[in-house]
Predict the structure.
Amino acid sequence: MQIDIKTESFPLAEVFTIARGSRTHAEVLAVNITRDGHTGLGECVPYSRYDETLESVQKQIESLPPDFDRQSLQNLLPAGAARNAVDCALWDLEAKAEGRRAWELAGISNPQPQVTAFTLSLDDPPKMQQAAAKNAHRPLLKIKLGTPDDMPRLEAVRAGAPDSRIIVDANEGWTADVYKELAPHLLRLGVAMVEQPLPAGEDEMLGEIERPLPVCADESCHDRQSLPALEGRYDMINIKLDKTGGLTEALALKEEGLKKGYDIMVGCMVGSSLAMAPAVLVAQGATITDLDGPLLLAEDREFPLKFDEQGVHPPEAELWG
């Protein structure tokens, strides 16, 4: 088995800003795994919030033994970006070797397009209103917040897109007092869900205060081992392949989360269609799909995912799976 690792950079259509900073490019790590004449493809987006860099993730992948399979991989690397790229490449490899689609291997029949959120990055209120108006035709908008001056931004987005469903991502940027103060206004403006309002590890107050609208765990939820600590604090979990360490754990987390009564959100880092493709399988039947990474790029991969009024479509075999 041969593993090839390549760093790639995709320019963004516009500067993308969240509470932690801005970026102009999506920096990703692409992994190709070749065995018996077939090559499987995977992609990950290392995230500094989890102490990952392109270099550290590449070293993790290079540390793998000469031969392994998807099952043994789950114990060879921890949940995170490195395992994600390798795991998804192995799914693609298995699909090509067996002449079947990855969703067949996963026991998913007839996957359908999923309506996806479109993310508006953090900016001053007039610019966010302009961005909202430009995208007011989209059924679901996601707003990046997490600062002391969020209400004018939210009001501006609602004014720009009066008919769109809105979800809010605070990116761990609020305190319990700020959230309690903002919650009535979120309801007034028709916000459907708030994502990770408090910092991971400092979110115990969510189990003690009223949650008038659904609260989704993002940074607080990585894999199935995260679930016990979420009980009573969250109503939804955000499953991202770069957190779970690949499609294998993502599917298992979805199943376990549903059993425990959580609604499911399937999200992404900012990457190419190759990174989103496996997540479309996890998104089947999810309450919220947020796989808009390719829509934020100025350039994407060959055979990109199809986005239309129905949402994001399952990948073509030429891209993945």
In short: The chain has a mean pLDDT of 95. The first strand starts at residue 2 and ends at 18.
